[in-house]
Amino acid sequence: xxxxxxVRFQKMFESQLQSASPYFREQIGTAIIGDSVDQAFELxxxxxxxxxxxxxxxxxxSARAALSRIRRGCFGFCEECGEEIDLRRLEIHPTTxxxxxxxxxxxxxxxx
Length: 112
Ligand SMILES: [Zn+2]
Description:
Layout lengths: L2 H18 L1 H10 L4 H13 L5 H19 L14 H6 L7 H12 L1
Helix pairs in contact: 1-2, 1-4
The structure holds zinc ion.
């Protein structure tokens, strides 16, 4: 993937986090620096309990996970087979972890 595309995704995830909740907003600056902050986040999420709607937490978590993958240089690669995920697929599902083939196989397994 081109660096410019990677940066575009990174900005998108960051703005997603920023718009999520003031509660998370203050964490973002540190969240993109190191994995130790992930633990802090987990703690925060535990403290939150069920006060936030699940969807919001999920979108924050997946945006944060995507930023973490950008940081580690593995964003855009399938977690299953390691192949590069089709950019058109990433445009539609930016937080996806799998290429279309693996996704279909996984869904097939779950459905079976
Ligand atoms: Zn794959």
